Structures are given as structure tokens and as C-alpha cells.
Amino acid sequence: MPINPAAAANAYAALGRIGAEAGNPARAIAGAPTADGPSFSSILKDMVSAVSQASAHADLQTQAAAMGKANMVDVVTAVAESETAISTLVAVRDKVIAAYEDILKMPI
Question: Which long-range contacts (CB under 8 A, 24 or more apart) does 52-57 make?
């Protein structure tokens, strides 16, 4: 699946938010571990956790809608948030893989 500019922008914005929460957005986006900021692995762990939580929330909303106990606007919003989170994670994954492949192609 090709990465579109919107997915890449969403991934970059998500990393920026995580970095801003840590107080050092430039270093967090670069993924470099710092004494006052998160490492790249912790950023990825947080993103996977956020995707998992969004998916669980969407599942709960969908089940509530099936039982007639949920507002359809809430269901659609939860599913859209889950879809956006998954798209962001996939875009970041694709960029990491592309960067790794570029590193492998570099002459020694």
C-alpha cells in the first residue's frame, strides 16, 4: 500500500505531539534518545498502545451500538479515530522500513 501525503503528515503530527508532551519535540521526532526525552522505541511503544486503545474503544462502541445503547455519532467517531490511528502506525512503519532499506543500500 503506497503512503499518501496525508498519512505521512498524520504520522509526523502524532510524533510531534508525543515529543511535545515530553518537552523536546525536535529530538523526539528524530527519535534520538536524550536525557530529557523519550527514545524512539518508547515513542513506538506509545503509538502501538494508542492504536490498541483506539481499537478497543471502537470495538466497545460498536458492540454498544449493536445492543442499541450507543449514539451512532459516537460509534462513527470512534471507528474513524481507530482508522486514523492504524493509518498513522502503518505510515510510520513504512517510513521506518524505507529508512532501513536506504541504510542497507549505503556503501561502506
Answer: 54/78, 54/81, 54/82, 54/84, 54/85, 54/86, 55/82, 55/85, 55/86, 57/81, 57/82
